[in-house]
Amino acid sequence: MAKTLVLAEKPSVGKELARVLGCRRGGEGCLEGERYIVTWALGHLVELAPPEAYDKAWEKWDLLTLPMLPEHMKTAVIKETGRQFRAVQALMRRGDVQELVIATDAGREGELVARWIMEKAGWNKPAKRLWISSQTDKAIRDGFSHLRPAGEYDDLFHSARARSEADWLVGLNVTRALTCKHGAQLSAGRVQTPTLALIVDREEEIRRFVPQEYFTVQAKCRGFTATWRDRNGQTRTFDRERAEHLCAALQGKHGVLSEVKRTLRQAPPPAAYDLTELQRDANRKYAYSAKETLSLMQSLYERHKLLTYPRTDSRYISDDVVSTLPERLKSVMADEYRDLARAILMKRPLQTRFLVDNARVTDHHAILPTEEQPELFRLSGPERNIYDLVVRRFLAVLLPPCEYEETRLTLTVGGETFTARGKIMKEPGWRAAYGRFLLEEDEEEEGEEREQSLPPLRQGDSVEVLSARVSTGKTAPPKRYTEATLLTAMEHPPTQGMDRAQGKILEETGGLGTPATRADIIEKLFSAFYIERRGRELVPTSKGRQVVELAPADLRSAQLTARWEKRLGDIARGLERESAFVSEMRGYASRLVGEVKTSDAVYSHDNVTREKCPDCGKFLLAVQGKRGKMLVCPDRECGYRRSVTRTTNARCPNCHKKMELRGEGEKQLFACVCGYRERLSDFKKRHAHSAAGKRDVQRFLQNQREEKGTSAMAEQLKKWLEQQEK
């Protein structure tokens, strides 16, 4: 009997597809049923071949071998996942497998994952495409009943391949050129470098900023306080004498309310979430990194099936999704959402004017709850937080606008103008979805004027100034980026120096990177030691500042990404040929390498220690990693690194803050900023009979797993845990 092979992107997704399709018999890297065989990749199984696959001379990093410009790009099986590739290839070559269903993530990169595997494995039989936005049983069944010919997505694959090859040609060549030219581990890329430039430029603005003292004048009247404004409407003056003279002249004076303006206003609900907006809010409210939020979203999408496809850049839905909204509302009738969801459902027809916009939906619609009934107790704390954000936003966008009355007073005293404003809520509308949990950026107050409760007043009333005071402040520099504000800047990068057309393209193409890649770009800046975190703020290191100066000017600007994304979009729509774009990138990479080679710029290590690398003898560099201080070897080929201190999840028994783990071997100790110190051996004894303590250590190990240089300590804690289980 002929069978259909289904290729998923990850084992977790593959196993869910297999369950729905009735594939229960296990095999090598697959699950098999009567009609279907479900297999999976492990992310990418195939990638572009490394330079040495083309020319042995390219194996060595040397300026003389640059630029590297292969005429035809090759692919190679990733060594670490080679076993799974061979399993997939064997399934594709089975005689009873007559058709393939591409079930990788429905997007540009998902298409690339599948097509490269198919090409490398030699697939030449019919193929179809599964394109779904959620992993519920219903969505999977509907998707399999509406499979499309894979050929309809060829242009999307060509766009993905063009992007990958262009990044190889430009990124690898410029990275090698910078590293070889300056004898340091430096890298550059079309998205990474302009993103880093945003942080570096902001730091330079802060460094150059000179604060100025300013003054404001407030007049206290019966029932309200009014703020002085000059003829230009500004509340600040930099003239102390003027402010003090005005304050003295107000004492005991009477003024007239020259205007009392009441306006009924409406505030529409915020649009539904796309990934970037969700990452912003999660960082702002919970301090989650962009990568953490994406990981939590993937779990809610793949494992719990409670949310739709996360890697979307759309904040709207199309008409065909509207019919599913009642079921989605029923699914969220749990806990604190129950009453509001029921009230929305009962008011038919549903209010969808702020959610439906066919023209603004791309490959995937906005992030929504699925029709799956949630078992909230199964969610971890962070998963619950992300689910809460999405559900509240979903309910909010189905509610009417918030209505309030805004009152603005204009008081004239001795020819000077003072204003005050207040707000009275009429109908909360969408704000009912948030209540006291409303998440929004702190509103910038207009000058020093703040909202207040205003007494009933009429135009023409005489008002006595009971007292007046001068307030002093200093102008503030621009704020450093947090991950939330950096994501905004990446999505809407500054357009200074661009013409209007380029700025428009950058806006239309979604700025720097894509919702799916921005988190990884930020992580790369940390791992390359280009930026470090101070609290929530992102600060460039000396290495980060220097690499922005050393990189070719073209790579520092967001214009390059704007041009690329416009053309990649045209390739995806069949409006441009992939070969023409890649050919142009070869010439472009060659020009950038030439710029680096002829540059007179110099790179200097200003973080060199006097401790030598035990492997190659070079002096180690002191760097601040994402989870603590490290010593790293400057030699790219050596790659030695060692953790000096690590921020852990272990809590101080005195102040309950997270402690650092310092030292090596038997001398390792926990240290807290409050002054508390405890040896690792004593820590293990203290928690030896505590279940909560074991969980703390397990969480600590989980969080440290990805950090290089922690393996020795991790092994000790792992052995300790095993002993406790015996």
UniProtKB/TrEMBL annotation:
It comes from the Bacteria. Residues 187-192 are annotated as: Interaction with DNA. The keyword DNA-binding applies. PROSITE patterns: TOPO_IA_1, TOPO_IA_2, TOPRIM. One of its GO terms (molecular function) is magnesium ion binding. Mg(2+) binds at E9, D105. Its EC number is 5.6.2.1. The keyword Membrane does not apply. Its cofactor is Mg(2+). Keywords: DNA-binding, Isomerase, Magnesium, Metal-binding, Topoisomerase. Residues 442-461, 705-726 are annotated as: Disordered. GO terms for cellular component: cytoplasmic replication fork. The active site is at Y309 (o-(5'-phospho-dna)-tyrosine intermediate). It catalyses: ATP-independent breakage of single-stranded DNA, followed by passage and rejoining. One of its GO terms (biological process) is DNA recombination. This is DNA topoisomerase 3. It comes from Intestinimonas butyriciproducens.
